[in-house]
Amino acid sequence: MGLFDDILHNDESLFINEQALDYDYVPRIIPHRENQQHYIADVIKPLFQKKSGRNLFISGAPGIGKTVAIKHVLRELNDKTDDIITVYVNCWKKDTSYKILMDICEQLNYKWVHNKRTDELMKVVSDIVNKKSVVIVLDEVDRVKELDILYSFSEDFYKKCILMIANDSEWLIKLDERIKSRLTPDSLEFKKYNYEEGLDILKQRSQYAFVPDCVEKGVLELVASNAFEKGDIRTGIFLLKESGNIAEMKASRKIMVEHCEKAIEKLDSFKIKKQEDFGIEEIKILELVKENSGLTIKELFGVYSGEISYRTFHRKLEELDKNNMISLGERKDKSIVVNYTKKLSEF
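Predicted structure:
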């Protein structure tokens, strides 16, 4: 081998499909979640006989495949039939009845929503989905502030299957009995991946993402060990992506253990505190930053709808910055710009 044969040229890349290392990427095959996917499919199947399906509450820790398994089932369902409408709502972002219904209207391609009240939107959605059958997924359902929307779905949708996903397994126990009695949901718990399962999943993602034979022996084992230690497969996916980026910056034709070790250093300082560890006000401010990234603190406070003072608002931003949830940067005119920091769960 020549002295420069191991150098990656400008027009070359180690990645053949970088999207395979995005966390919301849905692979063609979802390993080690086959039983759960069959269970989910079983609660949906009555819709094929023009009957209502069973409702299902899905719980388990973050980063163990709940959402990706659901999305895989929905994709197969959409490939199989046009007679069943599928709707997926992330309730972390859409946490009120109005926001959920607006999101559903957008998915149903209904555009005449201007000035419509929540009950009017509910009527619109019901009229559309009741022409067929519907599977509605409410991801992070434990973040919904107005749970009457679940009662409305139960009452107003004729042939339906409501799938509710939450990290908190106790959410269903604490649910209002009036709503629970209408839903009568089955329960399905996702367990954490063991080391071998995590290694297998990361090996698959690596094959989708990188050119053949570019990942050095030992990298996947190191990545899988970190993912198993954190109990979150997204840790491994993040490390694979970062290791590839570091290798490319070094113009290396191989992703080596030393690149992975550099990625792990970045992971250790990536996020000190989990989002759910913050109070309601901090989470509200974090969502505000996410929707308005790039504004100055004064501009951001101008669109803030809470009741705290500017000084308290500033202090809470500093706390979020200290925990790597956002970043505060200074412009030439000395004004402070607030930027949203992408989280591990969004890779």
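Summary: Residues 142 and 171 are 6 Å apart (CA to CA).
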